[in-house]
Each structure stands twice: as C-alpha cells, then as structure tokens.
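pinging the channel bc i need a second pair of eyes. not urgent but kinda urgent?? the chain im working w is below, pasted from the shared doc
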Amino acid sequence: MKIILIRHGEPNYTPCDERGFIGHGRALAPLTELGIMQAEKVALNSILSKSEIIVSSPYPRALQTAAIISRETGIKLSVEMDLREWEPDKTFQFKSSEEADALYQDFCYCKGIYPIGKKRNWEEIDEIIERIDPVIHFYFKEGYKKIIVVTHGGVIRRFTGEAKVQYCSPYVINYCGSFDYFKWVE
C-alpha cells in the first residue's frame, strides 16, 4: 500500500494561549492563514491523485488540513485517534508552550527512551509506534492501495527518518503489512 504522509499546515497557538488552555487543550490549535494556504496548495499536488481515502489525526491543525484536502480533491475523510502527535505529558497537565518545549528537550536529551530505572510523563518512541502501526495495518488489511495520512512531524519521523518534517509536504512510503519504523532521528 502506498502511503502519502502529510504534516499539517502551520498551526496558530495564540487562541490556546489567550484562553489559558493547558495539557490537551493546547492541541486545539487551528491553522494560521499561511497554514490554510499550505493545505490548499498541497491539495493540488498530483501525487495525491488516485488516493482512496484521507486518514487524519483528530487534532484541529491536522483535521483542518485534511478537510481542506478532502474538499479540494473529493476524497473521503476518516479520523483516527491514534494518529495524534507525540504526547509531551501523558497526564495532560502541562500549562504552556514553554513547559511543552522543556518536556520535548528532555525527550530529545533521552533520545525518546526513558533512562534506565527512571520514569517520565512524556510518550516514548516505542509507544508512538505501538499506537500508529495498528491504524496503518487496518487500512492495509482492508485492501486499500493508496491512502493519504495527515498527521504530525513526530509520527512522520517514525516512517521516514527525516529529522525536519516540513508543513504540508508529501512524503511517500510503501507499506507491505509491516514496517521497520525509525526510532531516534537526529
């Protein structure tokens, strides 16, 4: 099965900051005007032709991107909870972008794996892979030949090994029932 991976467009966290959202509430960020234009542009990319379904993360920045692509292409859209971004705090209590950034820095310092004998609240790389693989495998088992997956940089890195995943740039991979996911990417 051919998978066209697309990272959402540029997000706007200002509405979340203005409302004082914490934890998962920070995931409610919509797209910026530039992010909307990025989504409209990628929707015109010929690489998307003959795709059978768009599968999206539930986070608004990804879902808004997927909805724009669906509107422009006429391709059916499905939402998958487990295509969400890496969780900086599985207790959903972080309060700011700065706190999320600090958690991400620790994740990077530890290369995505808890230090031996230590526990962290952020999601390990293996946990990301354990939740995304069954989603992808489901569409493979259903017989899809070409799908679009709109998700996040942390998810796309597991498939591509790319350190810098660009907004609304398509990345193409082949999935044959299993996949050797990338762990830490420098």
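so Residues 125-141 form the longest helix (17 residues). and The chain has one domain: 2-85+125-174. — does that match what u expected or am i reading it wrong
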